[in-house]
Design brief:
alpha+beta, 4-stranded antiparallel sheet, 3 helices, 31% helix, 30% strand, globular
Amino acid sequence: MGVVMVSYPAADGARFDREYYVAAHLPLVKRVLTPHGLVAAEAYFPDDEASPTLAVAVLRFRDAAARDSALGHPDAGEAFADIPNFTDAQPTAARMSAA
């Protein structure tokens, strides 16, 4: 399984709209990436408001090749373009493989 973990840092004054993220962004990600091998997308939010992270998304693909292909596909651009609609934080992404 290929995985992408996207983290949104809680920089001073960073805006993050959890409702939009869950109701609009994650469904968009699923819609545009599922045809390219996405099998699951989950969002996690810190329990502690003092956390250095606003949110973490875990995107699971059928394998690393599907993950890499999906993220490089023009369809992924629609999901990337949506980011300013819910945050002004600069996300970081890590590509990982499940054991």
